[in-house]
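Lab notebook, design round three. We kept the backbone fixed and only want residue identities now. Task for the bench partner: fill in a sequence for the structure below.
Input structure tokens:
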């Protein structure tokens, strides 16, 4: 089994989407959140070969700007943290929906982690009751990004 890294985690997400016959480019917020919750619940990530790890979902939204590009990001990411002597490594993979920013400029940036809630149902409720989810649940994004990365 390959070692855990950002590419293997992204591959796991892509495999899950393929098995569900999901075209990521057609996702809106509501089905995207449901897919990420299902991936978290149904697909354990167990490539850490005796290393202690933590598995969590991160929900975040807010405006961003890079050079002349701007957008409103709505993301659910899976974070696997490897706890190793001397350093932790966080591996991420998830889905980000990018929306036209001016419509959502009044929404303050926000993020929360599933481990901050007593159950995944409470985490899902936090997402569904957020102002961004209520505004974007059925809105069509400008683009959909499958993202991955790692941080030490």
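Proposed sequence:
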């Amino acid at each position: 089994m390959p070692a855990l890294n950002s590419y293997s985690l992204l591959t796991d997400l892509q495999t899950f989407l393929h098995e569900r016959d999901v075209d990521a480019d057609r996702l809106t917020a509501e089905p995207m959140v449901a897919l990420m919750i299902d991936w978290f619940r149904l697909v354990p990530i167990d490539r850490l070969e005796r290393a202690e790890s933590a598995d969590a979902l991160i929900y975040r939204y807010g405006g961003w700007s890079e050079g002349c590009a701007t957008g409103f990001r709505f993301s659910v990411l899976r974070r696997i943290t490897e706890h190793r002597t001397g350093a932790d490594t966080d591996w991420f993979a998830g889905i980000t929906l990018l929306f036209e920013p001016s419509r959502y400029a009044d929404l303050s940036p926000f993020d929360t982690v599933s481990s901050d809630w007593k159950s995944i149902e409470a985490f899902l409720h936090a997402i569904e009751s957020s102002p961004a989810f209520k505004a974007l649940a059925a809105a069509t994004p400008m683009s959909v990004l499958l993202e991955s990365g790692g941080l030490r």
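Keep this in mind before ordering anything: Residues 29 and 137 are 5 Å apart (CA to CA).
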